[in-house]
Amino acid sequence: MTTQVISTIAQAEAGTSLAADYIRKGELVAFPTETVYGLGANGLHEAAVQKIFEVKGRPDDNPLILHLSKKSEVRDLWDTVPRQAQPLMDNFWPGPLTLVFRRSARVPDAVTAGLPTVALRMPQNKTARALIAKAGVPIAAPSANLSGRPSPTKAEHVREDFDGLIPLILDGGLCRVGVESTVLSLVGKPTILRPGGITREMLEAVIGPVALAESVLAPLPDGQAALSPGMKHKHYAPAGRVRVVTGAPEKAAARILALARQAEVEGLSCHIAATTQTKARYRGWPHTLVGDRDRPETLCANLFALLRETEADLILAEGIPPADAGLAYMNRLLRAAGFDVEEV
Ligand code: TXA
Ligand code: MG
To answer: What is the per-residue pLDDT across 27-64, written as a single tens digit (0 to 9) for each?
Structure first.
């Protein structure tokens, strides 16, 4: 199979029409969203959804998100409707918030991995919504990466993983948010299963207290069932190892430099994830400016590209306080590091 890449900046209409044809025929297409690229299939078509699991190498106990183009489309897909649903949809849809509800009988088992719940999201990206509207069905879409690899924030990342395996990639340029959507369960008390583009603080301003699943900042203890099955699988792994150093910027930078020198002695190549606050300290060492510690959303936007594009044996990164967008950043960074984290 040859994989066609169509720029939705140059050819929005033609690109989304062709992609919608593929979706209707039960094929897979990759498309941009404001968070990361998605690998989409007709979400009401069991066999099409199965293809996602095959192509990604995704464990079959990890359910998928159904993407909608209009809020009214939730009606056929959810069963009981919790009272927090409407204010959350009013405030954050379209946008990087996925809501988990009890599901209706219409949702195929392949989407929910057999769970009694379904995850729904209405993306903000216009190409994504045009594609869903033209396809005329909810689109089941995980991030468009091979299972275990960092999520793609550029069409080029999708091509690295799926060239020759899917017929079409819609190239919408760089994803704005850079980490996946927040997954909030509304089954029982509202609980964040995965932090993301919409922060806990933003959610609490609308519906009051929101709990955090234990697995957000810690590895799952062996044998414990995950609320969100995706959290128990290995995630975001770059080519080399990642080590995280948390603490005040100056102290963290000093420790990172010590680790870089040690790596050099051991003959390992290393790369430092720098911040605006510490960049000058890393002069003379291979480093990339990821973002600003005081605006953690900037760190989120660039993390996956760094993990994917850096070939060093060791990536050294500063940890930041897990508040606001810092929570999503630390959730992804700690997983990429396999929880190899040190506090100074
Ligand atoms: O931003 C995003 O959410 C991107 C774009 C493409 O929309 N999609 C994405 O999908 O990140 P994926 O499959 O990589 O991650 C979906 C997460 C997984 O952790 C999965 O376990 C969880 O959502 N999830 C899906 N359905 C669920 C359900 N019924 N209950 C609990 N967690 C669920
Ligand atoms: Mg994913």
So the answer is: 999 999 999 999 999 999 999 999 999 999 999 999 99
Residue 243 C-beta-side C-alpha neighbours within 13 Å:
19
142 lines ligand 1 (CB under 6 A): yes
Name which residue sits closest to atom 3 of ligand 1, judged by CA.
181
The structure tokens listed for 128 are: 């994504």
C-beta separation of 260 from 270 below 8 A = yes
Distance CA 61, CA 49 (A): 13
Distance CA(16)–CA(139), nearest Å, equals 13
For residue 64, the ligand closest to its alpha carbon is 1
On whether the CB atoms of residues 53 and 80 are closer than 8 A, the answer is no
Each residue's pLDDT tens digit, 240-284: 899 999 999 999 999 999 999 999 999 999 999 999 999 999 999
- pTM for the structure as a whole: 0.96
| C-alpha–C-alpha distance, residues 9 and 174, integer Å | 11
